[in-house]
Amino acid sequence: MDNSLLSDLGAALVEGSLTDEALLAETGVRPTMRILPEANVVKIGGQSFIDRGRTAVFPLLDELVENLPHHKMIVGTGAGTRARHAYSVGIDLGMPTGVLSVLGTFVSMQNARMIHYLLARHGIPFIEPVQFPQLPLYLSERQAVIFFGMPPYTFWQPNPEVGRIPPHRTDTGAYLVSEVFGARSMIYVKDEDGLFTADPKKEPTATFIPSITVEEIEALDLQDVVVERSVLQLMKNAASRRSIQVINGLKEGNLTRALNGEHVGTIISA
User: Helices 170-180 & 97-119, crossing angle to 10 degrees?
Assistant: First the structure.
């Protein structure tokens, strides 16, 4: 290639090393384009929501359908209790983290397919990672898509600092979609009002936290947080999605309020 056709940065990348920190810093100067700035990523919890069955899921899906004329939604699903059972068996059999990631992926996919079938009459498609290039078309046509939240790392899942449970699970997968596409919002639908100083199911006196930063969460050194800790780590270097919102989907209207930009639940920012 004729280097005269390259920009200064292009020439530096061709001639330099991708481990050079000064060169890498230059690649972050130009702002990142937001690909789908009007889309909202909505992640429906597995154990915290889908596992509750129709009494929880049906009203939420009705609310989701009501918002189709007003909001574009990329809906991800958690894995839940069945994945935890698979992890326990896999660990007992000596399976490494990458294999456990594969097991969790298929449970998350099962939940995504069930949500898809419940919404099929509204023309909302289920997509796998290989179909993400068609996602903008589906959003334009149907206003929403369903995907499984587990990131497709499978065997390439990094080992956690402690133990063998995959550190990047469905909360992380949904967040990464919102970050990469520069989505308008990242909403986590749980069965709790948001972040508390402790697990409110175990500690009724736990204090609700309506808004907080990642740095403040780390300073509190909470034993339990409402989203995967890897999400908080990823937010530190985010280019587009610098905040997330955690809402109680069991309370009617909370999803609508969050989609409309209201401060409901907990907002965690970078």
Answer: 70
Q: What is the 3-state secondary structure (H, E, C) of 159-227?
A: CCCCCCCCCCCHHHHHHHHHHHCCCCEEEEEECCCCEECCCCCCCCCCCEECEEEHHHHHHHCCCCCCC
- Answer whether 259's CB lies under 8 Å from 252's CB: no
Residue with tokens 């810093």: 25
Phi then psi for residue 146, to 5 deg, are -115, 135
What residues does 195 pair with on adjacent strands?
209
pLDDT digits (tens, 9 = 90+) for 231-242: 999 999 999 999
Distance of CA 216 to the CA centre of its chain: 21
Torsion over CA: 72, 176, 153, 166 (sign): negative
Q: CATH 3.40.1160.10: which residues of the chain?
A: 36-269
Residue 44: Cβ within 10 Å count: 29
Structure tokens at 227: 């989203």
C-beta neighbour count of 14 within 10 angstroms: 10
Residue 265: in which H helix or E strand, if any?
none
Quote the CA–CA distance of 40 and 260 in Å, as a whole number.
Answer: 10
**How high is the pLDDT of residue 87?**
97
What's the CATH superfamily of 36-269? Acetylglutamate kinase-like (3.40.1160.10)
For 125-138, the pLDDT digits (tens) are: 999 999 999 999 99
Question: What integer is the mean pLDDT of 184-213?
Answer: 95
At a CB cut-off of 8 Å and minimum separation 6, what does 256 contact?
63, 66, 67
Q: Are 134 and 142 in contact (CB under 8 A)?
A: no
Element (H, E) at 66: helix 54-66
Residue 143 host element (H or E) = none
